[in-house]
Every structure is written in C-alpha cells, then in structure tokens.
Design goal:
The chain is an alpha/beta fold. Helices cover 45% and strands 13% of the residues. Helix 1 crosses helix 7. It starts with a helix and ends with a helix.
C-alpha cells in the first residue's frame, strides 16, 4: 500500500473515530473563531479542570488505570462513571460538576486503558472484555464489599459495563450493583453501521481497516502529526458526526476535539475491531431486572437510537430517555437532560437511613 493511500486511510481512521469511533475534529483556531462570533454560554466553563482524589489501580495485565474519587468516603451510594472510545473521564464534566453538589454522593471516575491518564495497553488486551475486567478492578479498589454502586457508561463505557456483567454476574445478582445507566451505547451489530460516513465510503473504510491497522504501528507518529496540522476541515465534520444540535457551543466542540486529539491514532485503530465485533445482547439478561436508565439521541450516527431502544426492550425496569436534536455525546450536548435522568435513577436506589424507615 503506498504512502499516499496509507495517509488518506489513516486520516479516515481519525475522522471515523472521533466520538465513539474516532473522528478528527476541527482546527482549534476555527473553534475559537466561532466562539468569538457566536453566543457561547460555555465559553468560560472549566472543562478538564475538575479533579478528585487520585488513585492508581493495576489491571490484571499490569496496566495502571487512573482513577479519581469525589465526595465523602462514607456516602451511602457510589456512582462509577465509564467514558467512551477516544474520550476520557472529563467527558462527564457537567454531571461531575452538578452531582458533586450533592454532599451525600460519592463518585468514581476513571480513564479506560490507553485513554486519558491511564497506561498504554498492548494490542492483545485492547478489547471490550478486558475493559470489563478493568472495571472490576476499579470496583474492587474503590467500593467496599457490600456497598451499593450505580454504574454509568457512555458508548464504549456502556459496553464495558456489559462485559463486566458477562464476566462477573455475581455483582449484579447479589445487589452490589444497584442500578445501571447506559448512554448512547449498543449491545452489538455495530459492524453493520457506516460509522457516520457516507455508506459507500464507510464500506471502503471498513474493508481497508485491517491493513491500515497493521500499518499504523510504524506510521502512527507521522499520522498523529498530520492530525494536528491538517485538522482545518474537521470542525464541521465533528458537528455532523458527534452532535445533533446545530447551536452546540463551539467551546464544547473544541473540548471534545482536545480529548480525541490526545488519543493516539494507533490506539484508535487497536480498539476499533473490538467495537465492530461487540456482541453483548445476552449479557443484558444479567441486569434485566435492575433499575436502569437508557439514553438515546435522535441524531446519533455512531450508536443509533434503535440500538438503545433494543437495550431498553430487554430491561424490564428501565427508563428510556430519547433526546431530540442530539448526537453521540448527549451528556455534553444536553447535559441537563442526562443529569436529571441520572438523579432520578440515583434517587430510586439511594439507601434509606434506618430512622427514615421507622418514621
């Protein structure tokens, strides 16, 4: 395969991967220009500035996982947040900010392997199943045995929760996991999608990807440099692929771009096969009767609303929230809707103090 073709397909990998499947997004100077020209209520938001008590958890293969904890250690309920592909724990910015005002809630945020501040995985362990084992390690290190926990996952983070259920069903059966929130995610059949690209190009991209993946190991640095320099055309592409609301804050788009750009191109390529092969429909049976929240977006091109509806149809006690004018990163695009839904779920399972029971 010649260098020019490798470069073009490498750029396609970056484009398709952006939010949940790795898209290269806009030049920052363009985003800043948009912020100056358009009303932007999020312009002064401290994205990436919320930090908690740090902890390093070692995965089964030795990869160090970066974990942060907010809230009191003696809180009656812990919520563990799992981010998606090419993002990091900061994608939960609004939920972390607003739920943090609840002085009686403990929150755990972590960066999945090869993402954010966590250590780099090898290719063999860049899988959804391994991410499920990583989540198990995080739970073991951060939540006391017997203490109730709510698991919240976006995109690949939701798949990580499904992998945990498949590998450790006892956590869901003994009441340790009290509820789950699955946001813009899927239980499988992602290989059938065009990845938000025009159908013809999507087929070419997927057919070429195995060869591209093998090539990226040697060319990753070159391609990453190209992503930084050649992102001028990507701002509008990101709005189309990742967002649904055309009035989305340019600052939010820029924030997403920073998270994606920090994900090396070879990491994007390494994780793509596991997402395409993801099939955890049977795992949903493990938490079929648990209180659940499923959030879909009408313009999600990465994990379409039909995938979320299929999940909700399996779960007998799920609230299905379908968000209009929303794309793949609903928790950032329409944070108030997602946060309110999470509050409803948390209130359903929040332990009741003994004196309140007897009152």
């Amino acid at each position: 395969m010649n260098k020019k073709r490798i470069g073009l397909i490498g750029a396609a990998v970056g484009t398709a991967g952006a939010v949940g499947v790795g898209a290269v997004v806009a030049a920052r100077r363009y985003a800043v220009g948009r912020a100056r020209l358009t009303p932007d209520p999020d312009a002064n938001e401290a994205f990436g500035g919320l930090r908690g008590r740090s902890l390093t958890v070692e995965a089964t293969d030795g990869v160090p996982l970066h974990v942060e904890i907010d809230g009191p250690d003696d809180a009656p309920l812990t919520v563990v947040f799992c981010h998606g592909y090419c993002l990091n724990q900061d994608c939960w910015h609004y939920q972390r900010r607003d739920l943090g005002r609840d002085g009686d809630l403990r929150m755990v945020f972590w960066d999945q392997r090869s993402h954010g501040r966590s250590g780099r995985s090898d290719f063999v362990h860049a899988t959804v199943d391994q991410c499920g084992e990583d989540l198990f390690a995080v739970l073991e290190a951060t939540v006391d045995a017997g203490a109730p926990v709510v698991l919240a996952g976006h995109s690949m983070g939701g798949m990580t929760i499904m992998a945990l259920a498949e590998g450790h069903p006892e956590l869901f059966e003994d009441g340790r996991v009290a509820a789950v929130a699955l946001i813009n995610t899927s239980s499988g059949e992602l290989a059938e999608l065009s990845l938000g690209l025009p159908m013809a190009f999507g087929k070419v991209f997927k057919a070429a990807l195995p060869r591209v993946t093998r090539s990226l190991g040697k060319r990753a640095e070159l391609i990453d440099r190209g992503r930084r320099v050649g992102a001028d055309v990507a701002f509008m592409a990101t709005r189309r692929i990742a967002f649904g609301d055309k009035k989305v804050s340019p600052t939010v788009v820029d924030f997403v771009e920073q998270m994606i750009r920090s994900t090396p191109i070879d990491v994007i390529a390494e994780f793509y096969p596991t997402l395409a092969a993801h099939d955890k429909l049977a795992a949903l049976q493990v938490f079929k009767n648990l209180p659940a929240l499923v959030v879909t977006a009408d313009e999600d091109r990465l994990t379409p609303a039909a995938h979320g509806r299929a999940i909700a149809a399996v779960l007998s006690d799920a609230e299905l929230v379908e968000v209009a004018e929303a794309g793949h990163v609903t928790m950032l695009e329409h944070p108030e809707i997602v946060t309110r839904a999470l509050v409803r779920l948390i209130d359903r399972v929040r332990p009741v103090e003994e004196e309140e029971r007897s009152a």
